[in-house]
Amino acid sequence: MKRKIIVTGGCGYIGSHTVIALIQNNFEVIILDDLSNSSKETIERIYKITDVKPKLVIVDLKNDFETKRIFEIHKDAIGVIHFAAHKAVGESIEKPLVYYKNNLCSLLNVLEAQNQFGIKNFIFSSSATVYGLPKKLPITEANKTQRPFSSYGNTKKIAEEILDDFTKSKSDFSAISLRYFNPIGAHESGLIGELPNGIPNNLMPYITQTAIGIREKLMVYGNDYPTRDGTAIRDYIHVEDLAQAHVIAMQRLINNENKTVLEFFNLGTGNGYSVLDIINSFEKISETKLNYEVTDRRAGDVPELYAEVELANKTLGWSAQKDLNEMISSSWKWEQNFRKKINKVLDFSIKKTQD
Questions:
Q1: Are residues 144 and 93 in contact, defined by beta-carbon separation less than 8 angstroms?
Q2: Is 206 marked active-site?
Q3: From edge to edge, which strands make up the β-sheet containing 233-234?
């Protein structure tokens, strides 16, 4: 029998790539998603890539009763990978209560359901934002977590504290928190990638949407940071590398290879690239000139974040394989493929109307 994994938020950007990786590693996947920032069309894209159509259950995980009902149906699952969360830094500052309610209530309900039905392995989608403004770079897992600048980041920090308390109270429950740096890129097939609803909050989809004409211009938030070119520096990691890390982490828990009941791993490349580095690389790869404008800093952003990834490399047995060019070119391929599909649908609709 295939091993069943519940993936919350599995229609989202990182979630969908992880679902693909799980299927390719012979797991059965059950996706729980409210589709608030994703689409059920993702299931068809996953099917085209894997020849497997994962089961999608549309559910609001803030609903305790519905969450437990679904977990009871799938109590034969051996683990949960929890992606379901709102993730826009700027929006979280404007709507903190929305973020605390969604991100923390859904986590609590999932953990309670797991506890009730005996599903003992848990992978948490965390973030490098839990380190706040680091005093030393690169950031290691030994760095103390700090109060992040954004409500989004703080939900991740609080979630890790919840996991710490919960795992200490349970002898038969283990968790791994994966602290991402900055995921970009798309699946090598060009069939699936980052597709935010509305105006993108992340750099890469804003770049590709600007290049293809969906957005008038790209806004660069600040060029007065204490960095080499004044723009913020981040550790960008390919989403497919990130997806593989989740599979490896889950296998670690299933095989009881974890050293403690709660482990933390940084997921990045260890390299820092500025916003202008990304823009210049994109222009070179795509042979497209970007229209961009420098504006004020964005609340909640820190000047520089990049990882020390030795622990993930040695202990988890994972390392990033794809370079910046692959991240950017795959993002651009996905954007072009998606817009071609949209244009074909529009052309068909216009032709049908004319006929």
A1: no
A2: no
A3: 273-274, 233-234, 304-305
Q: What is the pLDDT of residues 24-55, one digit of tens each?
A: 999 999 999 999 989 999 999 999 999 999 99
pTM over 0.85: yes
Give the start-to-end residue ranges of the domains of the chain. Answer: 3-187+237-269+306-322
CATH number corresponding to 3-187+237-269+306-322? 3.40.50.720
Question: Which string of b and e fits 295-325 if b means at least 16 CB within 10 Å?
Answer: eeebebbbbbbbbbbebbeeebebbbebebe
Which amino acid is located at 200 in the chain? P
Neighbours of 242 (CB within 10 A): 25
Selected catalytic residue, list 13, 152, 180, 273: 152
Dihedral angle over CA of 93, 97, 99, 101, nearest 10: 170
Rounded CA separation 254/99 (Å): 31
Length of the chain: 355
Question: Which residues, 6 or more positions from 311, have their beta carbon under 8 angstroms from its beta carbon?
Answer: 140, 141, 265, 266
